[in-house]
Structures are given as structure tokens and as C-alpha cells.
Give the backbone structure.
Amino acid sequence: MSAPKKIRLNKAEKNLYLQYADTEFVLPAEYLRVYSPSAEVRGHGASDGTLVDGKIHVGIDKVVAAGRYALQIFFDDGHDSGIYTWAYLRELCDTQEEKWQSYLKQLQAQGKGRDPDESAVKLIG
């Protein structure tokens, strides 16, 4: 998979813009963070992944090249161990809506949310 022709970080909007020869994409920081390819998020095996919640406010501090094959994204919550290969970035672009809806369903199923300031309220009575 080839690298994007242009990569632009908009810190204020918390988005990463990727321009390819055939199209361009806008990837929100929250989406990139919850789908980080790091071992912390994906785990070390097929079923070891962790559902990341409470990242609605996360931003990106910086993006740097990782060799000639990937990007390393430094998030403002301190997470920086994910190496986003060109192929994985394009996968995130091409399947963004599907992956996002899956993520939202997983959050709901586990009683978790996107906002770290919200807590589950249980009524007693």
C-alpha cells in the first residue's frame, strides 16, 4: 500500500487529513485512538483486544513518520505506542463508517461511553 500524497494534522478540529491519488479522508482523533494498532489496544493475540472508552475529547499532539512505511501518532492523553502502517491507515479510511458503528455498539453493549465525564447512573428503588 502506498503512502498518502499529503498528510495534514488539524489540532483545533482534532482531525488527521489524508489525501490519496484517488480520494481524501478525514479521520477524527477519537477514531484513530480507539483503533490504535498498539498492543495496549489490540492485544497480543486475536482475542486480547481492549475496548477503549472515554476518548471523545482526545486530540493529537503530533504525527511523525515511522520509517517509510507508517506514521506514529502522539495523542494528548499520552498514548503514542501505535504504529499506523500505510495499509492500516487506508483500511481505517475505507471502513470508517463500519468500524465506527461497530465501536458504538460495543460501547453500548458494555455499558461504556465516549465521554469520560459521564458515569453510569443506577436507580435504586
Observations:
- The mean pLDDT is 91.
- Residues 6-109 form a domain with the NE0471 N-terminal domain-like fold (CATH 3.30.2020.30).
